[in-house]
Request: fold
Amino acid sequence: MALVNPLSFIQKAREKGVAIAAFNVHNLETIQAVAEGAAEERAPVIIQTTPGTLKHAGIEYIAACVKVASEKHDIPIALHVDHCPSFNTIVQCIRNGYTSVMIDGSRLPYEDNTALVKKVVELAHSVGIAVEGELGRIGGTEDDMSLDEREATFTVPEEARDFVEATGIDTLAVAIGTAHGVYKWEPRLDFRRLAEIRELVDVPLVLHGASGVDDESIKRAITGGICKINIATELKIPMAEAIQEVFRSRPDENDPRKYMGPAKEAVKEVVRNKIRLCGCSGLADELEGIR
Reply:
């Protein structure tokens, strides 16, 4: 089937009190692992790429590979660009078949962020594309910040309400204590803040930086209103470990199929586990209208 706008199945997940798993990919094997793992779980899935991955692999190559995956597997698959600060890159992604975009103006002053996001919403909605925005800042673990400084970057509930109303975004990524990359400390999510945001905001909420967050916290976040969970680092680590294991046992191996194959299977195992954690296994079979 063709790539789809993910909003319909995100809304379905919200109705059922589950979440959609969204996975950042980097190459053919990670695309295959995500699509195959989701198909085996009968789950709709969002395949995501960062601007760095687009620079590495090329928008056209990534889009073509994901389109093939969507045609091969009878589940709803959306293609999303993650944390993109560039309006021009958003346009290129839409032209190449992306069905969802995230314009990231979170480092801009509030008014400038709002104006940029609204501009993207107007463009994307005119061609049936979903838009994710972010309010607050989800840092990387390399940021050397105190607890008070970290909390200062969290999403303010009242601002979230105003931001959604002003921009018309379809989903909102909230900063409640997660970070990108490998955690140097145990992540503690601000569930009270999440509840306050959920009370004021009517669009589905997104959790970035979920890699490394314990399962119980993920489940609690979903119960608290998170409808989309982003996974990136937890795919990269097992992929690297699988490749390293091949070369430890066979240092002279030179056939990419012999080390990328195990890497793909390692990624797929994580994909299936995360889909189960999100509670969306089998959801594809309840979405006949968009299949």
Observations:
- Residues 157 and 199 are 9 Å apart (CA to CA).
- The domain at 7-290 is CATH 3.20.20.70 (TIM Barrel).
- Strands lie at 20-24, 45-49, 77-84, 100-103, 130-135, 171-174, 205-207, 226-231.
